[in-house]
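About this split. The held-out portion is used to measure sequence recovery: a designer receives only the structure tokens and must propose an amino acid at every position. Recovery is the fraction of positions where the proposal matches the reference. Here is one held-out target exactly as it appears in the evaluation file.
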């Protein structure tokens, strides 16, 4: 009996030792991938030189740390034990997220914006920041006026970030606080009014209604606005475009909301790679349709903006409201081109001027954090193209008159 127990213990020990290697070699079991972005370590190549200088050993260790068998469940088990026993998360320690005592999660730069220190990432002081923002505001005004003869209406949609709406849940410390500085949101909402730049301030609207709506505007452990907030914002943007163009457009119909507790919006929480989700308030969802108004105008909308706009594209029937909805993500990657909606292109490979002139509306959709780098060079590039076009047309007119 004793020998049998020893044999069983030996077999179990051997199994535990060799199971990860067997899983790595065969991939017998399939597990859900870990969330987050990591740079994949290449498989090391052995050579006499790399073995002697230790590079082969180092690269092998790095590779095995990423590819050992049962890595996914073991990592989640390890993370869950640290969180349950010590309320500690490696992601928080690496300063990729900030977790408050009431389980609200923010990105560090969101907290910086709340404490008005995020501007330091874009300028050395308030004077330099104000100068940059003023230059962008003036360019936008000039572009707006130069596009009017072509029937293209440019406007800015200022999207609220989580720090603007959920400030009461921010960490109560001074780690991110410096002397109060300028914020892009405060600067633009005042300056746009003074200059006459077309814009809609969704941030002010969100702050006004946050205590009256029956659904969260931002999920507790996510970074972007909620499904319902995005849908209602899309409806508001359409009505603003109707006002801007004095037209009747297809409108969005919003269904009754329903509670979602199984799969809450938790893109930040997912980085923690836990087994069980955090305790939090449920989120709410709704679906959206459109009013089938056959007499309504369906314009073409070109959007340049950040990741907040994806929730509008994913949750609202924009394809039925507009004849086209190309999206230039940070004015770098172009999505939903008319020639092939599934192909991503570089904005630099497109005819920017023609794309803009072909649009009925050009919307710069940026959240409060992204306003510092609005429009990612779009306004300057387009302004140069418009000036060149204007000069060419003037030269052609002069040649015809002579």
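Reference sequence for scoring:
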């Amino acid at each position: 009996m004793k020998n049998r127990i020893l044999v069983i213990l030996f077999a179990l020990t051997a199994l535990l030792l060799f199971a990860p290697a067997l899983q790595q070699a065969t991939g017998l079991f399939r597990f859900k991938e870990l969330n987050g972005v990591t740079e994949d370590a290449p498989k090391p190549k052995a050579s006499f030189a790399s073995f002697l200088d230790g590079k082969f050993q180092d690269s092998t260790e790095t590779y095995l740390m990423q590819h050992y068998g049962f890595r996914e469940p073991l990592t989640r088990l390890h993370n869950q034990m640290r969180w349950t026993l010590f309320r500690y998360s490696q992601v928080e320690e690496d300063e990729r997220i900030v977790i408050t005592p009431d389980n609200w999660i923010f990105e560090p730069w969101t907290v910086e914006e709340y404490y008005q220190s995020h501007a330091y990432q874009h300028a050395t002081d308030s004077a330099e920041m104000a100068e940059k923002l003023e230059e962008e505001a003036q360019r936008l005004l000039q572009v707006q006026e130069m596009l009017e003869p072509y029937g293209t209406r440019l406007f800015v949609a200022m999207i609220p970030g989580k720090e603007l709406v959920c400030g009461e849940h921010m960490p109560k410390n001074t780690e991110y606080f410096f002397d109060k500085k300028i914020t892009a949101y405060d600067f633009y909402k005042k300056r746009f009014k003074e200059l006459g730049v077309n814009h809609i301030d969704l941030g002010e609207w969100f702050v006004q209604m946050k205590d009256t709506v029956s659904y969260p505007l931002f999920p507790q452990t996510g970074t972007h606005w909620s499904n319902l907030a995005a849908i209602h914002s899309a409806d508001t943007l359409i009505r603003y475009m109707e006002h801007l163009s004095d037209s009747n457009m297809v409108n969005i119909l919003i269904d009754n909301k329903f509670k979602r507790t199984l799969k809450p919006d938790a893109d930040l929480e997912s980085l923690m790679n836990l087994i069980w989700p955090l305790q939090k308030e449920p989120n709410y969802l709704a679906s959206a349709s459109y009013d089938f108004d056959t007499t309504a105008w369906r314009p073409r909308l070109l959007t340049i903006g950040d990741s907040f706009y994806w929730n509008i594209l994913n949750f609202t029937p924009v394809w039925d409201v507009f004849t086209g909805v190309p999206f230039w993500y940070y004015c770098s990657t172009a999505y939903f081109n008319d020639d092939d909606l599934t192909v991503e292109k570089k904005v630099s490979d497109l005819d920017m001027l023609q794309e803009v002139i072909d649009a009925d509306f050009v919307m710069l959709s940026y959240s409060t954090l992204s306003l510092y780098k609005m429009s990612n060079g779009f306004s300057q590039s387009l302004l140069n193209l418009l000036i060149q076009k204007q000069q060419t047309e003037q030269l052609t007119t002069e040649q015809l008159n002579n």
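Annotator remark: The longest helix spans residues 2-26.
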